[in-house]
Design brief:
heterodimer; A: about 160 residues; alpha/beta; GMP Synthetase, Chain A, domain 3; 4-stranded mixed sheet; 3-stranded mixed sheet; 7 strands; about 20% helix; B: about 250 residues; mainly alpha; Ferritin; 11 helices; about 65% helix; globular
Chain lengths: ~160, ~250
C-alpha cells in the first residue's frame, strides 16, 4: 500500500472539478473541508454541500473517490458534513478568477444577497441589472448587462 | 434522550410535499425565469427534506430516507394542510409559498437553539436557502397585489382562501410539544407574532386586505388527517417506488 500525504491528496483534488462548472475545482469551491490520513494509509476526505438539493452533490463524492483511487490510494472514504454551513466566502481568490473567466460573475464580497450592480464578466461594465434570483443552477442568479446587452450568471452569496 | 422521529418526519414531510407541488410547475411557469425559480425552490425544499429524512432514518433505524419519503401510508405523513393544497393559479402558488416561507424561516431560525446537533446543522444550512425563497415570494405578492386590477383580485382571492390554513402552522401537535420540552425545538405558537408582522407588512405594501384572525382555522395534517388532495399527490410521488420496489435512477 502506497502512503499518501495530505499534500498528495490535495493535488489530486485540485484536478476534480465541479460537474456543473468544469473550470473550478472542488478545493477552489471551498467544499473540501479536511483531508486526514491515518497510519494505515486510510484516507478520509471531508466535504460540505453547497446547496442541500444540488444534484452535483451526488456526483462530486463519486468523482473525488474515483480520482483518489485512480492515483493508487485504494482505501478512501468520503464524509459529508453540514456544519459549519458552506459559504461563498470559502471560494478561493483563484476560484473567483476562474469563475469570471468562465463567464460567471463571482459572488459579492460584501455579502449583499442581490447587489444592484454586478460587474459583467464579459465586458466588465457595472451597468447591470438583476433578472431573477434563481438561475440555471441552485447557486446562481440571472443578470443582464446593459452595456454589452449580454445576459450572464451571477454566483450568488450564500 | 433522543428526539422523537415523528417531529423530524413532520419537518421533512412539509418540505417534501411542497417541493413536489412546486415541481408540478416545471414547464408550466408564466415565464421562463419564474418557471426556473419555482423549480429551484422545489429543489432546495426536497434537498432539505432529504437531510431531514436521513436524520429520521438514523433515529428510527432499519429504514432509509427513500422508504420514509416514498413508502409510508397517507395517514403517516405529518405535513400541514397548507403545503398539500393544489397549485391553483400563479397567485395561489405565490401566496401559499409566501405564507410557508415566512414560517419556514422563523422555524429554522428558532431550531438553531435546539439541543440536537444534527437538526441544528440542517437548520443552519436551510436558513440560507429559505432567505432567498422568502424574498422571492414576498416580492411577487407585492408585484401582483400592487399590479393590475386582475392580478390584485387574484392574489387577494388567494390570501382570503389560504388564510384559514395558516393557523395549523402555529398550533403545536403533541410531538412538537414533546420535542420542545425535551430538545428545545421551536414552540411554534410563539412564532405567530413575528410571522404576522412580516405578513401584514407585505400585504400592506401590496395594497391587499388582511383577513381576520378569529376565523375558523383548518387543521389535521399534523395528526395525519389530510385533505382529499393528499392521496393524489402520493399516488404520483410514490408510483415508481411502489411499481418497481428499490429502483434507483
Amino acid at each position: 500500500m502506497v502512503m499518501a500525504t495530505t499534500d498528495d491528496i490535495y493535488r489530486i483534488l485540485q484536478e476534480v472539478t465541479d460537474p456543473e462548472i468544469p473550470v473550478i475545482s472542488v478545493v477552489e469551491l471551498g467544499i473540501v473541508r479536511d483531508v486526514q490520513i491515518d497510519d494505515e494509509a486510510h484516507v478520509d476526505v471531508f466535504i460540505t454541500p453547497t446547496y442541500s438539493g444540488c444534484p452535483a452533490m451526488d456526483v462530486i463524492p463519486v468523482l473525488i473517490r474515483q480520482a483518489i483511487i485512480d492515483a493508487g490510494y485504494l482505501d478512501v472514504a468520503i464524509h459529508s458534513e453540514l456544519s459549519p454551513a458552506w459559504t461563498t466566502d470559502w471560494i478561493s481568490p483563484e476560484g473567483r478568477k476562474k469563475l469570471k473567466e468562465f463567464g460567471i460573475a463571482p459572488p459579492d464580497l460584501q455579502k449583499s444577497h442581490a447587489p444592484d450592480q454586478v460587474e459583467c464578466p464579459h465586458c466588465s461594465s457595472t451597468d447591470t441589472e438583476l433578472i431573477s434570483f434563481f438561475g440555471s443552477t441552485p447557486c446562481k442568479a440571472a443578470y443582464r448587462c446593459k452595456a454589452c446587452l449580454e445576459p450572464f450568471d451571477y454566483f450568488k452569496c450564500h | 434522550m433522543r428526539i422523537n422521529p415523528t417531529y423530524v418526519l413532520h419537518l421533512a414531510d412539509n418540505n417534501l410535499i411542497l417541493g413536489q407541488r412546486l415541481g408540478e410547475w416545471c414547464g408550466h411557469g408564466p415565464v421562463l425565469e419564474q418557471d426556473i425559480a419555482l423549480t429551484n425552490i422545489a429543489l432546495d425544499l426536497i434537498g432539505q427534506a432529504r437531510l431531514l429524512y436521513q436524520c429520521a432514518a438514523e433515529l428510527i433505524g432499519d429504514t432509509s430516507e427513500d422508504a420514509l419519503a416514498f413508502l409510508r401510508l397517507e395517514h403517516d405523513y405529518r405535513n400541514v394542510l397548507l403545503v398539500e393544497l393544489p397549485n391553483g393559479n400563479f397567485a395561489d402558488t405565490v401566496v401559499r409559498q409566501y405564507f410557508y416561507d415566512v414560517f419556514n424561516y422563523l422555524n429554522y431560525d428558532a431550531l438553531l437553539q435546539c439541543t440536537d446537533e444534527h437538526l441544528r446543522a440542517i437548520a443552519e444550512k436551510a436558513l440560507k436557502e429559505v432567505t432567498y425563497h422568502r424574498r422571492w415570494s414576498g416580492e411577487w405578492v407585492i408585484r401582483l397585489g400592487d399590479g393590475t386590477a386582475e392580478s390584485h383580485e387574484k392574489v387577494q382571492d388567494a390570501v382570503n382562501h389560504l388564510w384559514e390554513y395558516t393557523g395549523e402552522l402555529f398550533s403545536p401537535a403533541d410531538f412538537e410539544k414533546e420535542s420542545h420540552k425535551m430538545q428545545n425545538t421551536p414552540d411554534v405558537s410563539s412564532l405567530h407574532k413575528a410571522w404576522k408582522k412580516h405578513v401584514v407588512h407585505t400585504l400592506d405594501t401590496a395594497t391587499l386586505r388582511i383577513p381576520r384572525d378569529d376565523i375558523w382555522m383548518q387543521s389535521g395534517g399534523k395528526s395525519g388527517h389530510h385533505s382529499e388532495h393528499m392521496g393524489f399527490i402520493l399516488s404520483e410521488l410514490q408510483y415508481m417506488q411502489r411499481t418497481y420496489p428499490s429502483m434507483q435512477w
